[in-house]
């Protein structure tokens, strides 16, 4: 079941590439949207059949390269199921959003379907090498999206993206090899490694392995100081690419911390939790401050991603902080972190798609070039305002649920760090309000750049169809979050039990 | 050495190649020019028969034949299959450009002799046979490098020859010294005999021996002939020179490190590790701003040899080194020849810029190029990824973590120049493309290699099982 879900998009991608060259673009877009919708439906069925208290489910385990300790092992639990659903939702939104894409549609659709396979694959993998294969392929796929369909400086941005994240993935590989050699019998299986806890009592070795894995995941997340690839990649990527990059690919980093680093290396994770917390606070404040200084709308959203991912880092650091804090507070922090992943995925995805709509109309992301758009495009204004308010953590939206849990869970063990982090919320509030004011309020002024012949039109149907569900889901999670939290909570308690060993 | 073990069936693959070469030479003298391809077909038959013979004898226990001179073990057999398989690919690549060439038959004969030399290097278990293998692998390759008789070809052959002759003599001197030190040339006899010998002599002998083998492997510091030889020779010959002799040389180095030089007082493993580090780093740095595709591939092979030498460095330290080396060799051969096949398919495109807009014209060929280049980088699920995984694991297991870290950093660095080639191929071409002079056979070979590279990667499990097994010692 899971394997079909993971590999179906690639199969469709190959089919698309095999279609005759004269196939009309409409057919290709139709197949793409239908596939994404089908995957979405499959995930809903998966979710419906999932038993929240049942641990790992839908497992498949097969031999792959037994002599190297590599197996094909997939399954879902409360950490991965929300990520799967998020992936499917975002890819469906991107498929709908790209309805008007007319540059090499076939390749674009095939690439996105392939990317969907890699993203789903990362979240269901229960073998380190399988995880790595999908992790690495997601980089390759995104590289081609940026290099092929990006804006002006795409070649440099794509190269930077590939180099940085590839460096991260090789660090990750070295860490995985370290884990493999430490376990006896040698294995790459995440479940077996978690059960064996092979590095208990070997602090030096475990520290090095955690360093390698930590760097690998931190580049992807990205945390300061490994974030420098992110603004450029985001600015140059096409809108749908940015949405996937921020919405799904970044989550692979934090998901990796929860799935691999914390359960397999509990001792050293507890030992270095303070470092993680400090990194989280730096991300939160630095991301927010740099975002505040941007005049480029897309770059600003990119830096708020650094800020939002910082909350997750803070939470997973604080969850391990001390033994004397109550289990409930720790559980709140981890649950908040997973909720934040979902929430950030939905909201940043929506924001990047809206930024793409802005660019399509004005051919620039420069906020100073726009003014008073609210009069021309009320729906666009409303959507962006909702996404921005949700993103800054207004109650009633998913961001609030996530950040509230993170702060409540982290305040007990890490009062200073948490209070500093709350400043981040203030800063993001400030920068979003400033951006809204600049672009949408005031006298009407539109960029007078070449390539903008049409007047500024409001959101079109396909753009609405892509963005509205994302925002609606954010509201649903914000108002009735139990359906999500019921799935996450048992899993986060399981992670904490593993961490407390 | 006690009983008669001179069974010619043990060296059937080698015999097939010799027979193919001799018959080819005779046939070539009588056949009309447009039928000379028959000698090529004969060569391909010899290679295929050799692969079958090697595969059939594979499962047997490790043994020696012809005294202790020639080893029959997984290292020899896998070496044979990889070299012959690579030979088949090179033959397929040469079929078109050499069709009805006045010296077509000679080309195929030379290819077979070069393959034979590489195979002897891989299986030799005696220093004198190793020297014979060295000469057999080198001399046909010099001729192949200068086969076109044009300016760059002559320069390539001359450089190749001068360096090869010099280092060959050094190697012979080293062998002489080792013979004097250990009083034997057979590895099995040397194993143990070298332990309490004068260290100075041993060091001189080993370094001399190493010089020749590093030349064949194309590793630093004996690497500087590769870029000129590869750039100057015809694409099919370049593919052979850059890929196949290495296999024999690396297998020979591995055998030396695992059998006679494993416990001797010299820091053999550390020396190889340093050479590996130097090879991968220098090869990568030099490849950075190359704009000629053959030269870029040449420097990339130097860095690949660095990764391969990692497995050689830990040959004695860990049991997983052998399958790691052999798997990486197989993966590398297929992938590198795939990249060369793309070069052969577009004989008119010598520089990276000539690939601009290729994706529009030849989507499948571009896909093969991307698979092969990203494969050389070690992107999953291509074969080199599993090879790198195995080699890194073996290296860390063998205690050389710093080398594995350096290799990882180098891998990231190599991404830069592979992407420099991929990027224009995918980009939109602004200027009209020159009338394509393209080879359909080479294109098919490129597709096959890319598909094989993926297939070996996905089915790594059974392949790896075949490659492990005790060495003859």
What do these coordinates show?
- The complex is a heterodimer of chains A (501) and B (473).
- Chain A has a domain at 272-501.
- Chain A is built from 20 helices and two strands.
- Chain A has helices at 2-18, 25-48, 80-97, 105-124, 128-149, 154-182, 190-196, 203-220, 229-236, 239-264, 266-271, 273-292, 297-319, 327-362, 373-376, 378-391, 398-411, 415-440, 461-479, 482-499; strands at residues 57-65, 70-76.
- Chain A has a two-stranded antiparallel ribbon with strand order 1-2.
- The longest helix of chain A has 36 residues, at 327-362.
- The radius of gyration of chain A is 22 Å and the shape is globular.
- The mean pLDDT of chain A is 91.
- Chain B is mostly helical and 473 residues long.
- Chain B has a domain at 268-473.
- In chain B, 73% of the residues lie in helices and 1% in strands.
- A two-stranded antiparallel ribbon of chain B has the order 1-2.
- In chain B, helix 1 (12-30) packs antiparallel against helix 2 (37-57) and helix 8 (199-217) runs antiparallel to helix 10.
- The two termini of chain B are 13 Å apart.
- The model of chain B has no long low-confidence stretch (mean pLDDT 90).
Rg over alpha carbons of chain A:
22 Å
Tally of DSSP β-strands of chain B:
2
| Straight-line N-to-C gap of chain B | 13 Å
Side-by-side strand order of the widest sheet of chain B: 1-2
Mean pLDDT across the residues of chain B is 90
Note the main sheet of chain A. 2 strands, antiparallel
Unreliable runs of chain B, pLDDT <50, ≥5 residues? none
């Amino acid at each position: 079941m899971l394997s079909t879900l993971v590999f179906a998009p690639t199969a469709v991608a190959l089919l698309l590439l095999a279609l005759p060259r004269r196939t009309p673009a409409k057919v290709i877009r139709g197949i793409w949207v239908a596939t994404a919708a089908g995957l979405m439906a499959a995930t809903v069925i998966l979710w419906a059949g999932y038993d929240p208290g049942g641990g790992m489910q839908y497992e498949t385990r097969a031999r792959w390269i037994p002599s190297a300790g590599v197996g094909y092992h997939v399954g879902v639990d409360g950490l991965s199921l929300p990520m799967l659903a998020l992936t499917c939702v975002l890819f469906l939104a991107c498929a709908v959003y790209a309805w008007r894409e007319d540059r090499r549609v076939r390749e674009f659709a095939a690439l996105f379907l392939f990317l969907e396979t890699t993203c789903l694959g990362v979240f269901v993998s229960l073998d380190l090498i399988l995880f790595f294969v999908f992790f690495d392929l997601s980089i390759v796929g995104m590289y081609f999206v940026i290099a092929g369909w990006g804006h002006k400086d795409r070649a440099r941005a794509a190269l930077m993206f590939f180099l940085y994240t590839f460096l991260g993935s090789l660090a990750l590989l070295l860490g995985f090899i370290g884990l493999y050699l430490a376990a006896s019998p040698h294995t790459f299986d995440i479940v077996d490694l978690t059960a064996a806890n092979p590095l208990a009592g070997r602090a030096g070795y475990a520290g090095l392995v955690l360093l390698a894995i930590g760097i690998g995941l931190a580049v992807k997340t990205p945390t300061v100081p490994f974030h420098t690839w992110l603004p450029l990649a985001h600015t140059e990527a096409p809108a749908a690419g940015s949405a996937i990059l921020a919405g799904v690919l970044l989550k692979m980093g934090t998901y990796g911390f929860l799935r691999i680093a914390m359960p397999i290396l509990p001792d050293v994770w507890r030992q270095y939790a303070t470092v993680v917390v400090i990194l989280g606070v730096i991300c939160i404040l630095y991301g927010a401050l740099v975002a505040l200084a941007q005049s480029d709308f897309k770059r600003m959203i990119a830096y708020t991603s650094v800020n939002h991912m910082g909350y997750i880092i803070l939470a997973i650091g604080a969850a391990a902080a001390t033994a004397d804090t109550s289990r409930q507070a720790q559980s709140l922090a981890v649950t908040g972190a997973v909720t934040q992943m979902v929430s950030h995925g939905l909201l940043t995805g929506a924001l990047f798609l809206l930024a793409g709509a802005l660019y399509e109309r004005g051919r620039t992301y420069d906020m100073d070039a726009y003014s008073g758009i609210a009069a021309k495009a009320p729906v666009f204004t409303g959507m962006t305002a909702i996404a921005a308010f949700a993103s800054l953590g207004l109650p009633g939206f998913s961001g609030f649920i996530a950040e509230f849990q993170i702060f409540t869970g982290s305040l007990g063990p890490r009062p200073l760090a948490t209070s500093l982090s709350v400043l981040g919320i203030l800063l993001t509030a400030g920068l979003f309000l400033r951006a809204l004011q600049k672009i949408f309020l005031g006298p009407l002024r539109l960029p007078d750049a070449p390539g903008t012949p049409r007047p500024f039109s409001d959101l079109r149907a396909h753009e609405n169809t892509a963005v509205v569900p994302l925002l609606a889901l954010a509201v649903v999670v914000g108002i009735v979050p139990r359906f999500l939290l019921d799935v996450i909570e048992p899993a986060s308690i399981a992670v904490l039990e593993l961490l407390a060993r | 050495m006690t009983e008669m073990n001179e069974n010619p069936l043990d060296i059937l693959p080698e015999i097939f190649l010799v027979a193919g070469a001799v018959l080819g030479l005779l046939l070539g003298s009588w056949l009309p020019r447009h039928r000379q391809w028959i000698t090529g077909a004969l060569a391909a038959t010899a290679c295929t028969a050799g692969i079958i013979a090697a595969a059939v004898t594979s499962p047997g226990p490790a043994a020696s034949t012809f005294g202790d001179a020639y080893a029959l073990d997984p290292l020899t057999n896998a070496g044979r299959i990889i070299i012959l398989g690579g030979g088949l690919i090179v033959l397929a690549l040469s079929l078109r450009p050499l069709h009805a060439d006045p010296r077509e038959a000679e080309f195929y004969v030379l290819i077979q002799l070069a393959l034979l030399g590489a195979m002897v290097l891989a299986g030799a278990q005696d220093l004198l046979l190793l020297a014979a293998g060295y000469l057999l692998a080198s001399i046909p390759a010099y001729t192949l490098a200068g086969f076109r008789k044009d300016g760059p070809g002559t320069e390539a052959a001359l450089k190749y020859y001068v360096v090869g002759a010099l280092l060959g003599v050094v190697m012979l001197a080293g062998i002489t010294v080792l013979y004097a030190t250990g009083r034997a040339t057979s590895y099995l006899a040397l194993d143990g005999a070298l332990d309490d010998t004068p260290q100075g002599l041993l060091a001189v002998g080993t370094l001399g021996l190493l010089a020749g083998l590093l030349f064949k492997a194309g590793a630093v510091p004996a690497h500087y002939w590769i870029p000129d030889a590869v750039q100057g020779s015809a694409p099919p010959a370049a593919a052979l020179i850059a890929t196949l002799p290495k296999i024999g040389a690396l297998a020979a180095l591995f055998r030396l490190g695992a059998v006679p030089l494993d416990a001797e007082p010299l820091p053999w493993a550390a020396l190889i590790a340093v050479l590996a580090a130097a090879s991968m780093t220098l090869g990568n740095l030099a490849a950075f701003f190359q704009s000629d595709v053959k030269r870029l591939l040449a420097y990339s092979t130097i860095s690949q040899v660095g990764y391969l030498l990692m497995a050689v460095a830990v040959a004695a330290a860990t049991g997983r080194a052998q399958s790691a080396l052999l798997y990486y060799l197989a993966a590398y051969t297929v992938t590198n020849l795939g990249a060369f096949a793309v070069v052969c398919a577009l004989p008119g495109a010598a520089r990276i810029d000539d690939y601009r807009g290729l994706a529009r014209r030849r989507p499948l060929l571009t896909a093969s190029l991307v698979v092969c280049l990203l494969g050389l980088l070690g992107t999953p699920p291509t074969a080199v990824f599993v090879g790198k995984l195995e080699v890194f694991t073996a290296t860390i297991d063998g205690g050389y973590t710093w080398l594995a870290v350096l290799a990882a950093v180098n891998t990231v660095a190599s991404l830069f120049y592979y992407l420099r080639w991929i990027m224009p191929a995918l980009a939109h071409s602004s200027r009209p493309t020159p009338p394509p002079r393209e080879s359909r056979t080479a294109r098919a070979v490129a597709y096959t290699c890319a598909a094989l590279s993926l297939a070996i990667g996905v089915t790594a499990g059974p392949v790896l099982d075949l490659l492990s097994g005790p060495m003859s010692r």
